[in-house]
Design goal:
2 copies of one chain form a homodimer.
Chain A (H helix, E strand, L loop, with lengths): L1 H9 E4 L4 E7 L3 H7 L2 H12 L26 H23 L3 E2 L2 E2 L2 E5 L3 H12 L9 E5 L4 H10 L7 E6 L6 H16 L8 E6 L3 H9 L3 E5 L12 H10 L3 H14 L8 H13 L6 E6 L7 H13 L16 E2 L11 H6 L4 E8 L16 H18 L4 E6 L4 H22 L7 H26 L4 E2 L1 H8 L4 H13 L3 E4 L8 E4 L2
Parallel strand pairs in A: 5-6, 5-7, 7-8, 8-9, 10-11, 10-12, 12-13
Antiparallel strand pairs in A: 1-2, 2-13, 3-4, 14-16, 15-16
Helix pairs in contact in A: 2-11, 3-15, 4-9, 5-9, 5-12, 10-15, 11-15, 12-15, 16-18, 17-18
Chain lengths: 521, 521
């Protein structure tokens, strides 16, 4: 009976949003909860929501909570801007569905979303989790990388259909290379098909960005505004998430309603604040230092991208070198997982028997399906098995000292997906307060872009050198010397890549370091 | 120049299979390599390949290496059995493609694979990585769970097409509940469509299993044999992987050829054994105790399921409580990842700046695409950016003390996918030798099945009690007492699930522990 008492004391059910959170299997929850500086958390939350520069490294406000409730935005202009986008979006989706806006081959049937990071993960999650399958209003495709073969694969799926495909290009600055490259390649494909790209294109971008100027100059179908106070990983409530949902026929207003209702609950300055409970459980499970990984196990196929979405939301927000006082902290919280019970036939073997270096978040969905389930054996449905696997695994882990959280949803629908995502967004905000990091910038991502640029400059120098000496062949070391670089290894890697795409010639030696490279005549 | 020297000394290129392995960014590689008991590893490898009971806990041989080279199988019967399946498979795929074997609505156009764990992950990886897109010979669908809503989604995609859909049911014993439930639900769908399931069904199962008997009794189109010496996670070279590949139009013989060639290389008793290099690098990076997670980052969209495949192969093989001498070791090696550069806009922020609790395996593919790439800016292609992101990230991690391995492939084709998978299969065998665990059983998975059964029994008792007292309502504690169980928490969870599917009635109280449940009259 002790476990039942602990369960009753540590399980919270939020009637208003039909969500349960059970932290009874996080051993030190109470001790950690007692120590949490709630005053700080709520003060920071209030400041952020009222428009303070919460993302101080980038000198930006953090406004994703306004997106579902413009009434709380800190200025009249912002309130208006947010609700105007809603109206524009509704009218635009209606015009696309009705055929008032058409592609060159007729009514739009497909949507190709070009974007990376939050510009892809949010719409991918929502559109998979809330799909009506063949009854979706439009078919969705994604280009979320700069892999030429991946671009070819996406375009092959759309072959002969580009004239009825709406292309959404999402990039705040317009400068994200993967997105810009994808757009350029898709543009070429429209040219090859003797179609005009701009007559099928929509931009989602900040005003006066490179992309905004291009779209306006070329007369694209539409330009939706983005704002610097919305981060990619929290952009699902902006037009970035809402437009693909609306086009597919998902009730994006119910989705926003779910987020708004959860936001209200997470503003409550009490113990029964769901995001405070969740963030405290994370802290308790990982000692506030990410000592254990968060394994996300939704027992529902529709939610199998949720872990990937959270991987970005949590790891990109919390994975920081410095805290807010510039102390070296190397913080973070590792997230992985797919779905149950499928994963029980894979890595859950290690969770049960291997290292105790994780805690699980089980996501339980009470409703098995929209219709009635047949019995597979006497009195037992396929869904009973799913529930049985969840409960059995959870208990076995617990008995073996492996901690877990369980979230319970009645259903996976637009409203409850909104509830779930808003819960995690706020829990990330709270946890960042607890460990004192800026959850809203991503210096490593910016640094990654710069590092790639340096390397592309090196490639230009290499090609220049080979072009200037067309009859000669060079070893990697020769080239390094000639162009005045000591990155022989990277020069070698670049040469191999260029040769692998028949852009230069390679004469192999017995050891690769002695390979000789030459301009292709 | 020091880094270049280290790179040259620690990078290995295997001409025969066109694969490169660079371990220069694993700091203690040399020290660990010097200590590896190679004699033990090669002795165990030879014993395993010659048919010893390498999976001693289950009293089974471990024969996946024979599947691509029957000549080395330990008996004439096995040699014959393996090559006979190849012939049967070829003839069957030909008959399906030619229309000699048809469904009730005509030529088969779709394949629905029902299976979980290795029975799904292998075919999913191969069929995605080697897809020809719209030019695939057949369209593939998967059912890999017992989620009723997920089953509905898969069936919705096949609505009106079941008569031209071939259903492959894969289960060694036929007793895996998820697979059996999926099959039962699909069977119902055929009945609703007034079609005969058996005329569209193929089984892959051990001889005389429950599934084998059912298939033979009902006269299914075909029964392909499986053997107890092939584990699910290493079944991709068996008919489990080969049949979906062949049906989709993938050259499965080249795939097997790649595996066979890699197997030959990993039998070499020398330093230049690619699997020995890889397993040593894992050991060096994780201190032989899984102290760091393995992040898999292929910079190629086609390979984005590879990490999920490895997650099973590695974590299910190595995640063990006991070593071979029954010492408590709680071993394992955590695997996660998706693809680059996409992930650079997500969790790679944490890898760059957060905790140093991982090492990365970069997978570089030299060829960008089958055709010629257009220039996005002067002299630079989309593929150059992809390469630049890989090299930039790798270097930045290295400079920050984060270790990595880099694998280089010329291309992702059937042969090289075979090479890659066979490399990891053998590396897992070797690593298991190093840390002395049985890599071929999965006691936790079996335990999970049993735990679920206990819970389903509890559900039966609950329903029995409510049915016997139809006019009364009960709290979870009442029921626990009545049926003589002290698992009140699980009883409550089961009641909520039953009520959530309208199979019993729930009368809510202010606290959920006081909810009252009643039989639905």
């Amino acid at each position: 009976m002790d476990m039942w008492k602990r369960f009753c004391d540590h399980s919270f059910y939020f009637d208003a949003v039909e969500l349960g959170i059970d932290v009874s299997k996080i051993g030190t929850f109470d001790e950690v909860f007692a120590k949490v500086d709630r005053e700080k958390i709520f003060r920071e939350m209030a400041a952020l929501e009222s428009g303070s520069i919460a993302n101080f490294d980038e000198n930006r406000m953090v406004g994703h909570y306004w997106l579902r409730n413009p009434a709380i935005a800190p200025s009249g202009d912002l309130k208006t801007a947010i609700s105007e986008v809603w109206n524009t979006l509704d009218r635009f989706a209606y015009a696309i569905h009705s055929g008032d806006i058409c592609g060159q081959s007729g009514k739009f049937k497909n949507v190709l979303c070009i974007g990376i990071g939050g510009s892809a993960l949010g719409p991918q999650l929502a559109c998979k989790a809330l799909s009506h399958g063949p009854r979706n209003k439009m078919a969705l495709f994604f280009l979320d990388n700069t892999d030429p073969d991946g671009i070819d694969s996406a375009l092959a799926e759309l072959e002969g259909k580009l004239g009825e495909t709406l292309v959404i290009v999402t990039s705040k600055s317009g400068g994200t290379p993967e997105t810009r490259n994808g757009m350029a390649e898709v543009n070429f494909a429209y040219e090859r098909a003797k179609l005009t790209f701009s007559r099928h294109a929509v931009a989602i971008t900040c005003e006066d960005s490179q992309l905004d100027r291009q779209a306006k100059k070329e007369g694209w179908l539409k330009c939706f505004p983005m704002w610097d106070w919305v981060g990619g990983r929290t952009s699902i409530a902006s037009v970035v998430g809402l437009l693909p949902m609306a086009l597919q026929g998902i009730d994006h207003k119910k989705f926003l309603g779910g987020m708004r209702d959860m936001d209200s609950l997470t503003r409550v300055h009490e113990k029964t604040n769901p995001a405070l409970i969740l963030a405290t459980a994370w802290y308790a499970a990982t000692n506030g230092k990410g000592e254990k990984a968060m394994v996300i196990l939704p027992y529902k196929d529709r939610l199998d991208l949720f872990s990937k979405f959270l991987q970005q939301l949590i790891m990109e927000s919390l994975g920081k070198k410095l805290d807010r006082a510039n102390n070296m902290v190397e913080q973070g919280l590792t997230v992985y997982g797919n779905k149950g019970s499928t994963d029980q036939h894979a890595y859950v073997q290690q969770l049960r028997d291997g290292m105790n270096n994780f805690f699980v978040t089980f996501i339980e969905v009470l409703s098995d399906r929209s219709g009635v389930s047949p019995f597979i054996e006497e009195g037992i449905t396929a869904g009973d098995y799913l529930e049985g696997f969840l409960l059995g695994t959870r208990q076995a882990l617990y008995e073996n000292g492996r901690e877990s959280i369980t979230l319970t949803l009645g259903n996976v629908d637009p409203y409850h997906l909104g509830v779930l995502i808003a819960l995690y967004e706020r829990a990330v905000s709270f946890y960042a307060s607890m460990v004192n990091v800026n959850a809203y910038h991503q210096p490593g991502v910016e640094a990654g872009k710069k590092a790639a640029n340096t390397i592309l400059q090196l490639q230009k120098s290499i090609l220049q050198h080979l072009r200037n000496n067309p009859k000669q062949s060079f070893s990697p070391e020769n080239i390094a010397q000639a162009i005045g670089s000591d990155d022989v290894e990277i020069i070698f890697k670049l040469l191999e890549h260029l040769a692998g795409n028949r852009r230069i010639q390679c004469q192999k030696s017995t050891h690769f370091s002695q390979n000789m490279y030459q301009f292709l005549s």
